[in-house]
Structure formats: C-alpha cells, structure tokens
Design goal:
The complex is a heterodimer of chains A (about 120) and B (about 110). Chain A is mostly beta strands and about 120 residues long. Helix content of chain A is about 0%, strand content about 50%. Chain A starts with a strand and ends with a strand. Chain B has no helices and 11 strands. In chain B, the strands form 2 sheets. In chain B, strands 2, 4, 5, 9, 10 and 11 form a 6-stranded mixed β-sheet that branches. Classes of the chains: A mainly beta (about 120), B mainly beta (about 110).
C-alpha cells in the first residue's frame, strides 16, 4: 500500500514568488493535515481537513497561505507571496476517521527555501 | 492551551544501552499520545500510539507508557543500536481535536 505522497520534495524560490505543494493521502483516509516544521522544532499544524471541509485552519496565515481539497482526496497548499520566514519543511499527514485511533501517517515533506 | 515538552533535547549513548525518552504535556485531557521517529531530511514514522484508556504499548524493542494524571509519557528503547539514531517526537491529541508536537529528542547511538 502506498504511503502519503508529497511533491515536490525540494523547492527553492525567491521571496515574493508563489509556491504550491501537493499531497495525496493514503487511500481511504478522510482526514488530511498540513504541518510546517522549522529546524529543530516539532511540526505545527497549519490546517486539518475532514473530507473536503477545513475543520481547523486557525493556525493558517490566511493573508498569504491558502489550501484546498476539492474532492476530499488530494490537497494543495499554496503560499503567495513567499517570505524569507516561510523557509521550512511542509509535511502532509493523513489518518482514518476516529474510531479510537486516528493514528497519523506522514509523507516525506517538502523542504522550502526562500532566498 | 496544551504544551508538550521533551527532555532531554539531545542524548548520546553507547550501543547496547537501554534508554528512556521523556515527554510531558500540560493538559491531561488527551485522546491519545503518539511517538514518532524522524530521520534527517525525512518525514515522520509512527512508532507507537497509546490511547487515553491505555497505560502502555509495546513494539519490538520499544515500549511507551502513558500516565495522564502526571502528564507524562516515556519511550523506552532496549538494547539500543546505531540504527536507532534519529530524532524522536511525541504528539498529544487533545480533547479539542488538536495534535500538539513536542520539539523532539535527538538520539545518537555510538557503535
């Protein structure tokens, strides 16, 4: 069974440019998470989807970040315009509906460098 | 607001030693606690998930315990190997459905 797929793995852009990350969760997982991880820190949640609904986007900087999960499967996270402080690893995770578990499975991440 | 801390931040041990990694959380009303491993430049790999009603989980040389009353979880690694070198993170799923990660413990196992 394929795991969580993310692309690209690496991205280098100049500040003020737009960038987009793509995530395909594990088949059947209806919960999808986007996290940002800065060097030496744990991941911080940006947005959580239940199917196509964003149920928690309280930590998403909405002035420059946007996300969508149109058909409740794969998802795209966009930054426009990027700032130097956006350099980080962006991780996508998915999980089953809560049945007492909700164990999260992570993709390999996209390492973003803004110059 | 739930806060998760991990001590120590870094740990270096000789191969074969048993070791314990600590995770503390401020709000005992959690649904579960999950331990992950992260290799350099990679995503997170789930190691163990402990439900709030459970006290411990075991997988191979790993044993994780949960004490909600004291706000603590420990990850015990038996007979450590160089391949265990990685960063270990714990994450608490709160009653309001958020997942809060600790900053991680960087483990080096010296051959």
């Amino acid at each position: 069974e394929a795991g969580v797929v993310q692309s690209p793995r690496y991205k280098i852009i100049e500040k003020k440019q737009p960038v987009a990350f793509w995530c395909n969760p594990i088949s059947g997982h209806n919960t999808l998470y986007w996290y940002r991880q800065n060097l030496g820190q744990g991941p911080e949640l940006l947005i959580r989807y239940e199917n196509e609904e964003a149920v928690d986007d309280s930590q998403l900087p909405k002035d420059r970040f946007s996300a969508e999960r149109l058909k409740g499967v794969d998802s795209t996270l966009k930054i426009q315009p990027a700032e130097l402080g956006d350099s980080a690893v962006y991780l996508c995770a998915s999980s089953f509906p809560w049945t007492g578990g909700h164990e999260q499975y992570f993709g390999p991440g996209t390492r973003l460098t803004v110059t | 607001k739930q806060e998760v801390t991990q001590i120590p931040a870094a740990l270096s041990v000789p191969e074969g030693e048993n070791l314990v990694l600590n995770c503390s959380f401020t709000d005992s009303a959690i649904y579960n606690l999950q331990w992950f491993r992260q290799d350099p430049g990679k995503g997170l790999t789930s190691l163990l998930l402990i439900q709030s009603s459970q006290r411990e989980q075991t997988s191979g040389r790993l044993n994780a315990s949960l004490d909600k009353s004291s706000g603590r979880s420990t990850l015990y690694i038996a007979a450590s190997q160089p391949g265990d070198s990685a960063t270990y993170l714990c994450a608490a799923k709160t009653s309001y459905d958020k997942v809060i990660f600790g900053p991680g413990t960087s483990l080096s196992v010296i051959p």
